[in-house]
Write a structure and sequence with these properties.
This protein is mainly α. Helix content is 66%, strand content 0%. The protein has 18 helices and no strands.
Length: 428
């Protein structure tokens, strides 16, 4: 009887244990976002760097603070304290002039000031920001089509004159007079804005050159028009226009609290214009055409889009937005009569607003509020803070916004997926 041998099958290896998928850690994701040169963080870091440079220049320009650095190695605390107090007080003065005055707050809490006085800094910020919303939208809309609308200043002046003429020359009830005057301002700005678009579409003339020339033409035309008997005030000898009728004046939003609060209905119209611009770009066929031409005009032409008409209509729409800003001035804070200085530099500042807002309507509104706050704060803080500090901060912000690679290099940020995002106008 022979022994039989049995062979056992080899045991199967144990199945691998599936490890549960680890969820990304929020702090790690957030930390990576903070160290990435994406559009949001570049904007935030640009603001911080601008205020840092502003602080350095404040220290350098102040004679007393500068003198403390002459014996820095003997008593460094003197220089550091003087620098800290100077920067703190300067930026606090900007805040109090733009948002909330702490002394007025204490007086209000003690019953020595009314609520209207408490709102005065914020009212001034909103007043200065209102025209910037319109001109920023005018520049931003053109940017989306690959155009550089540097003519917002002239379009604002034309809108200001169009609204003014309707405002004092017609005798209508307020429910009809005010809307017609506002529309007239928009149409006047659109007429001037369409000119660079037509020239670019028909002759290839660059919109930057033609719109710069139109800025000068509009400014000189305003000087001439204010000297005519039709526009010139009958009661004043200097170059001041006639006032608009009461039925064409934009009502104040906070005048019931205090008549000196200047913010008016134009702010609401500006917010509505921003919402409309967002809808136009995001939801409408015309907006799709604008974005397609701005992204690649050759591909858009291959798809059957009319490039020339898109340029013309986009520049006209941009001019209408800037013209509404002029109407806001003529029918609002300057309803008593416009001068050659009424437009200030709102059109040129609109370029910086559009750059900071990344040509996005929501971002443009936010940057307009920021620049309005800088303007109101700088004017209120005089003579303690140089008025040029507002212009300095704006210019530095734009420098960093326009050069994200510079911010990335200074702070050693990581390149975001898809590369750095910059705004460009085609055709240079």
């Amino acid at each position: 009887m022979s022994d039989s041998t049995t062979t056992e099958a080899p045991a199967e290896p144990p199945a691998p244990v599936e490890e549960p998928e680890q969820k990304p850690n929020f702090m790690r994701v957030f930390g990576r976002y903070l160290t990435e040169a994406n559009s949001v963080m570049v904007t935030v870091y640009s603001l911080l760097l601008a205020f840092l440079i502003g602080a350095i220049l404040l220290i350098v320009s102040d004679e007393y603070t500068r003198s403390t650095f002459s014996y820095f190695f003997a008593r460094p605390q003197d220089a550091l304290q003087a620098s800290w107090y100077l920067v703190r007080d300067s930026y606090l003065s900007l805040f109090e002039g733009a948002i909330l005055n702490l002394n007025t707050l204490e007086s209000y809490q003690a019953g020595q000031a009314d609520f209207g006085n408490l709102l005065r800094p914020l009212s001034e910020t909103l007043t200065y920001a209102t025209p910037l919303i319109f001109t920023g939208l005018a520049v931003g809309l053109a940017f989306r089509a690959g155009l550089f609308n540097i003519g917002a200043q002239g379009q604002l002046i034309f809108g200001m004159m169009g609204a003014l003429i309707v405002g004092f020359s017609l005798d209508l009830p307020i429910w009809l007079h005010l809307p017609i005057a506002i529309i007239a301002g928009g149409l006047a700005g659109a007429a001037l804005g369409a000119v660079p678009g037509v020239l670019k579409a028909s002759t290839g003339a660059h919109e930057v050159i033609s719109s710069i020339m139109l800025n000068n033409i509009a400014a000189l035309f305003l000087v001439w028009a204010l000297g005519t008997s039709f526009l010139h005030s009958e009661t004043k000898s200097d170059l001041v226009s006639k006032p608009v009728d009461d039925s064409a004046v934009l009502p104040g939003l906070l005048s019931s609290l205090n008549p000196s609060l200047r913010v008016n209905l134009a702010l609401v119209i500006g917010f509505a214009a921003a919402v409309f611009t967002w809808w136009l770009l995001s939801k409408s066929t015309f907006g799709f055409r604008i974005r397609a031409v701005g992204f690649n005009e050759h591909a858009a032409a291959t798809a059957g889009m009319r490039i020339g008409s898109t340029y013309t209509t986009t520049m006209a729409a941009a001019g209408a937005l800037a013209g509404l800003g002029g109407a806001a001035l003529a029918l609002g804070v300057s309803s008593g009569g416009i001068t050659t200085n009424t437009a200030l530099d709102y059109g040129f500042s609109g370029i910086t607003v559009a750059l900071l807002g990344r040509a996005n309507p929501g971002g443009i509104v936010a940057s307009a509020l920021l620049f309005g706050a800088l303007k109101a704060g700088a004017l209120s803080a005089q003579p303690d803070v140089p008025v040029d500090i507002s212009t300095l901060l704006q210019a530095t912000i734009v420098l960093f916004i326009a050069a994200p690679a510079l911010v990335k290099a200074i702070l050693h940020l990581r390149t975001p997926r898809g590369g750095l995002v910059t705004l460009e106008a085609k055709g240079w």
